[in-house]
């Protein structure tokens, strides 16, 4: 991409093929926005007031030292983000475990792809969103998209699947579903039952790739014992998707020369997300797709560095290179690179939702450092998260705008944006990209790497242990990742600058990278992929007389994540200025609501106020809210923090709600 004034112009690149969405081409406006933070802020007398960098960092270091001395290292927690560069994610994890000695670190990627990652690891032995280049999709005859709406969330992606017969699984008639030849609209939280029904049809109609299953997989018999009971008519009763459409999907996939099954947040953000993704992987394995040229299974990434962000140590249970933190060999390797004793490294900490819920409690962290996240808007049951932040002794936020989370901080540290620094990102296909600095940061702004170095030295660490130069950090990351699943050791900035397309693993500097995983064997010791013996259980919360509707959440074209960035761009706000709730016209009428009216959407956890949009294609018992808005418009005031037992993903995508008119007297 090139920056021309405040307008971003795309370069011709394989993934976007010269395209950008509206969020992309307007993103330059953030660099010089009127409310850009350019000086540290320290809370005095209840107000955030300007301070020098020296003063702000001294305040942070002194408070962290005091809390650790009084309550131990786990009294301080760190919360990262999937938008951080690989270098930042790596150094943040190292800072938490070495400079702070805390196990309490996780990141907002736990809310994004953790269920797909857990299911992928179990099935294939390795987790890479797409284990093939995205350009391979152009050769597909059929693509099934489960819980994905790329026409709004990542429009340039759509061109890769336009030549295929699309099967879209989504409760809503989204712009992506409009492109589909077959739209399957299951009730929210029933995707696994649908996957089981289609798998049953695949086997019953003779589309099982038996040779592939016999020679390249394990566990089919156990998975089939469950799927055998899910004939399509039974799945229809649970999901609402007709048995005929399930069989049509099985036929399209089974007869295709090249086919792909792709999942995204809609099928993953559930308390059963890992099992549900496992169900879609089972379908792909039964069809013989993964590890076959021209076909496969994959997961679409949700954040700017959603893949790399979970590979290098800001996740509670991981060390760099996608190593497990409780693996003695992994601990010894990384400790050797860091120059510390393996026993000095803490063990696994709390996952994101559990970490936020523990803040300020007797046995929980007393301080929190936040980098690249806005949890007041993005976390489930966000009113409770806001309460937990208020219970902290100390909150530090590094950001470039005063987000809703930063507004509550004791210290705010202004940091660089994407165009003001070098660093690498890893895209959805496991390709490492070097993002070059395009403009100078405003005076008074520092990089996240510099902030971590300055805090680490104040906490007694040698400066050379925490380099502030992205290139130096990457050189260390290469060593730390060597031999791991996500092996970057053969990647150099010089190779990236020269334009080499390097997909991990890249175990040596003369290695060309691995654009297609699993062609010869899967990453389990026996080389086989594993079916998952998974069954449908349904949402954690069902509608009842008090809360008769189901709510689901998602994105819109003009906004991104918590909206802290996109809500500051006039061109985007003009199109979608506030939260809305999509409602079937008959449902709205029963609640006494007209199109354009303001409505209260209430769940067992809280309520939000949103503008009604009547949508005739929506299921009468379903409402939809985007999650980009703050204050009383937070969709996550409603959402259920029930967690997947494996991935610890919250159930963002379905909860029971009631719809009513706004009390005008209270509203006034």
Task: Describe this protein's structure.
By secondary structure, the chain is an alpha/beta fold. 30% of the residues lie in helices and 17% in strands. Helix 3 packs parallel to helix 18, helix 4 packs across helix 13 and helix 14 packs antiparallel against helix 19. The longest helix is centred in the first third of the chain and has 19 residues. The radius of gyration is 24 Å and the shape is globular.
Helix-residue proportion: 25-40%
Report the mean per-residue pLDDT as an integer: 93
Largest sheet: 7 strands, mixed
Going across the biggest sheet, name each strand in turn.
Answer: 4-3-17-16-15-5-6
Computed CA radius of gyration, to the nearest angstrom? 24 Å
Distance between the termini: 47 Å
β-sheet strand percentage:
15-25%
Give the helix/strand class: alpha/beta
Q: Spans with pLDDT under 50 lasting ≥5 residues?
A: none
Q: Overall 3D geometry?
A: globular
The number of distinct helices, counting runs of at least 4 residues, comes to 23
Tally of DSSP β-strands: 28
Which SSEs are present, and which pair or pack?
Blueprint (H helix, E strand, L loop, with lengths): L1 E3 L2 E3 L12 H5 L14 E4 L2 E4 L2 H19 L4 E5 L5 H15 L4 E3 L6 H11 L17 E5 L3 H4 L11 E5 L5 H4 L3 E3 L6 H14 L5 H7 E2 L1 H8 L4 H8 L3 H13 L3 E5 L1 H4 L4 H14 L9 E4 L18 E2 L3 E2 L3 H11 L13 H7 L8 E5 L3 H4 L3 H9 L3 E6 L11 E4 L8 E4 L5 E4 L12 H11 L11 H12 L11 H5 L31 E2 L18 E6 L15 H6 L4 E4 L1 H6 L7 E5 L4 E8 L7 E5 L13 E4 L6 E2 L3 E7 L2 H4 L1
């Amino acid at each position: 991409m090139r920056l021309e004034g405040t307008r971003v112009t795309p370069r011709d690149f394989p993934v976007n093929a010269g395209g950008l969405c509206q969020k992309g081409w307007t993103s330059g406006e953030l660099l010089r926005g009127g409310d850009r933070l350019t000086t540290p802020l320290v809370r005095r007398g209840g107000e955030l007031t300007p301070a020098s960098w020296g003063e702000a960092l001294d305040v942070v270091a002194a408070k962290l030292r005091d809390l650790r001395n009084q309550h131990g290292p786990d009294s301080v927690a760190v919360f990262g983000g999937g938008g951080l560069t690989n270098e930042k994610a790596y150094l943040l994890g190292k800072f938490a475990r070495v400079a702070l000695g805390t196990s309490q670190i996780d990141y907002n990627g736990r809310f994004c792809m953790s269920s797909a990652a857990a299911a992928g690891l179990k099935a294939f032995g390795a987790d890479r969103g797409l284990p093939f280049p995205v350009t391979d999709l152009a050769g597909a005859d059929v693509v099934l998209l489960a819980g994905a709406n790329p026409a709004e969330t990542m429009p340039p992606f759509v061109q890769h699947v336009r030549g295929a017969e699309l099967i879209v699984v989504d409760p809503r008639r989204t712009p992506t579903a409009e492109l589909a030849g077959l739209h399957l609209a299951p009730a929210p939280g029933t995707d696994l039952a649908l996957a089981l029904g289609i798998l049953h049809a695949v086997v019953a109609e003779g589309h099982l790739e038996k040779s592939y299953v016999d020679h390249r997989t394990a566990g089919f018999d156990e998975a089939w014992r469950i799927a055998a009971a899910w004939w399509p008519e039974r799945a229809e009763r649970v999901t609402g998707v007709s048995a005929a459409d399930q069989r049509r999907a099985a036929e399209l996939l089974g007869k295709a020369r090249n086919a792909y099954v792709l999942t995204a947040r809609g099928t993953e953000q559930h308390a059963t997300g890992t099992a549900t993704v496992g169900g879609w992987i089972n379908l792909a394995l039964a069809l013989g797709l993964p590890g076959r040229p021209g076909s496969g299974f994959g997961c679409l990434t949700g954040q700017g560095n959603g893949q790399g962000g979970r590979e290098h140590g800001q996740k509670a249970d991981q060390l760099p290179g996608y190593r497990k933190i409780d693996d003695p060999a992994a601990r010894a390797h990384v400790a050797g690179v860091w120059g510390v004793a393996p026993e000095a490294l803490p063990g696994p900490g709390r996952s994101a939702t559990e970490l936020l819920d523990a803040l300020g409690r007797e046995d929980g962290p007393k301080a929190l450092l936040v980098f690249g996240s806005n949890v007041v808007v993005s976390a489930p049951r966000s009113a409770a998260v806001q309460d937990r932040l208020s219970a902290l002794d100390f909150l530090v936020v590094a950001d470039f705008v005063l987000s809703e989370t930063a507004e509550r901080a004791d210290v705010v540290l202004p940091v660089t944006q994407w165009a003001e620094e070098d660093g690498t990102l890893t895209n959805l296909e496991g390709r490492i990209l070097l993002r070059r600095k395009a403009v100078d940061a405003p005076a008074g702004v520092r990089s996240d790497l510099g902030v971590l170095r300055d805090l680490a030295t104040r906490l007694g660490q040698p400066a050379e242990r925490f380099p502030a130069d992205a290139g130096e950090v990457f050189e260390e990351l290469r060593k730390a990742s060597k031999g791991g699943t996500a092996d970057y050791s053969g990647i150099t900035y010089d190779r990236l600058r020269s334009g080499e397309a390097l997909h991990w693993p890249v175990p040596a500097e003369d290695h060309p990278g691995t654009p297609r995983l699993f062609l010869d064997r899967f990453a389990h010791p026996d080389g086989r992929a594993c079916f998952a013996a998974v069954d449908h259980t349904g949402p954690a919360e069902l509608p009842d007389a008090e809360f008769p509707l189901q709510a689901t959440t998602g994105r819109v074209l003009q906004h991104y994540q918590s909206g802290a960035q996109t809500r500051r761009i006039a061109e985007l706000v003009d199109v979608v200025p506030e939260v809305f709730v999509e409602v079937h016209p008959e449902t709205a009428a029963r609640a006494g609501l007209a199109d354009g009216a303001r409505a209260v959407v209430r769940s067992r956890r809280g309520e939000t106020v949103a503008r009604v949009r009547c949508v005739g294609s929506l299921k009468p018992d379903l409402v939809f809210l985007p999650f980009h808005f703050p204050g009383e418009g937070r969709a996550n005031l409603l959402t259920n923090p029930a967690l997947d037992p494996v991935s610890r993903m919250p159930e963002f995508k379905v909860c029971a709600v009631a719809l009513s008119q706004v009390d005008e007297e209270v509203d006034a």
